[in-house]
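So, who can interpret the following?
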Amino acid sequence: MAIKIFSGIVAVVLLVGFTMPYVLKMKDIALTIVILIGVGMMAVDLWQSLRSKED
């Protein structure tokens, strides 16, 4: 379980770190919304995978 939490946190940090320069440089509201939706979907998927009892 600890490896799932660690890998999930690393994945979220990498995604945010990869997309943040685009948001800050372009300052486009539509792009920011799309990226936030993607990060939100990733967070929901991470939450659901951590709550499952597969392991």
The chain has a mean pLDDT of 88. The longest helix spans residues 2-26. Residues 1 and 55 are 7 Å apart (CA to CA).
